[in-house]
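URGENT: need a sanity check before tomorrow's submission.

F., can you look over the 7-dehydrocholesterol reductase record below? I want to be sure the sequence and structure line up before it goes out.
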Amino acid sequence: MKELQRIRRSSLGGSTSSLTRRSSISQKDIQALQETLQKQQKVSAQMVFALLLFTITALFFRFPFILQCVPPVWDTVAWKFSIVHSGIQMIFYWVLPHDHALVMSSAGDEKREINSFFSCILTCLLYVLGASTGIYRGDLIYIHFNSIILIFAIFALSIWAALIVSYHFGTGNSVTTISEFWFGIENHPKILDIDLKSFIRTRFTFVIWPLFIISALYFHKITYGTISTSLLCLSSVQLLYIFQFHWNEDLYLNSLDSKRCDCGFYRLWADFVLGPIIYTSPITVLAATNRSVGLISNGLFCLVSMVSMVFSAKCDRQKYEFRRTKGALKMGGVDAFFISAKYRTDSGEANANLLLGSGHWGVCRHPNYTSEAVTFLAFSAFQGFPSVLAHFPAIFVTLFLIARAFTDENRCLIKYGQYWAQYCSKVKYRFLPGVF
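C-alpha cells as predicted:
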C-alpha cells in the first residue's frame, strides 16, 4: 500500500493533468467492453484445438504431397550439430561471465544473470574457426537446415511432454484443457535451474539465426564464387539486429512477451521452429538465387533497417528507464507525462502501473511494433520481388505485430478500464501519428 501511495504522489508531481482528464467514454461503457472482451478471449481459447485439427487435416489429407517435403529425421549430420549446439549453449550459460539485469514486475523486482551476448559471439566465432580449419563444411547449417529444424521440433515436443509430466507428478498441477496445452500454465518453467523460455529464445532462436547467415555466406561463395552485394548487406544488418538483441537482453526480459506469455506448446514451437524459418527466409532466397538489387537500393534498405532497429531499441530503453525510475524521468527537459492506472491483482490487492505518454510513447501507443515491422519489411526488400511468397514472412511478422497490438490493448482495457480509456484519449494513434 505504501508503494501505491508513493506512485500516486509521483503521478501528481509528474503528470497532474492525467488525473483531471476524463474520457468521453462512460464507466458503464467500459464495463460492457471489458465483459465482451473477456468472453471473446474465452471463445478464442476454445477454438485452438479446432484450428489445429483443421490445419493438420488440410496439410496431410487435402495436400498429401506435403509429406514428401518433410526432411529426413535420420540426418546424422543434423543430429550431431543439434546435440553439440545444445551442449555448448548449456556450458556457455553456466561458465561464461555474467552481467546482471533488473527485471521489474508488480510482484517485486529481481536481478537475473545474463550472458547471451558473449555466448552468441563466441558460438559464431567457434563455428567460423571450425569451418576455417576444415573440421566441417562452412555451409553445413545451410545444407542441413530443414533437418535441423525438424530436430528442433522434436526438442519442442519432448520438452513440453517433460513439463506436462513434471506438472502432474511434481507440482500437482495438470494440463487438462486445450488452452492450457497450447498456451501453457507456467510463465518461467525451469530445468536444471535454467529458465527454459529465456534460454530457448536467446540460445536457440537468436543463435541459430546468425549461424545460418554465416553458413549461407559460405554456401553462396562456394556456389557462385563471390558474394552478391544484397546478400552481404542483408547479412550485415541482420547480424547487427541479432547482436543488438543480445546486447539488450535486459530489455527482452522486461518485455511483455517475456513476462506475460506462459511457456506452452505455442511458445516452444514458435521459438524452435516458426521463428528460425521466418527470420532466415530472405537470406535463404538470396543465397540460393544469387539475386541482387541495385547499389542505391541496397544503401537505402540498409539505412532504413538500421534506423528502424535503433529506434525500436530506443523506444524499449526509454520505457525501461521510465519504469526503473518509477516515473521520475525527464524527457526533453520536462517531467514525463504518465497516467497512474490502478487495478487489482489476482489476489484482490490494489496496485497501480504507470502508463507512459511522453517521448516516443507520446507519439503513438506502439512505436516499437511499428519500427519492428519496418525493420523486417526492409530485410525482405533486399530480395527484390522474385514472387509474392518471398515476402510472406515479412508480411506475416507485420500482421502478427498488428494483431498483438490489438490483443495487448484489449488486455489493458480489461485490466485498467477507465484509466486505459484516458490514456488512449491522450495518445490517440496506435502505430503511425496522424494516420492510424
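My own read: Residues 72-292 form one domain. DSSP finds 18 helices and eight strands in the chain. If you see anything odd, call me.
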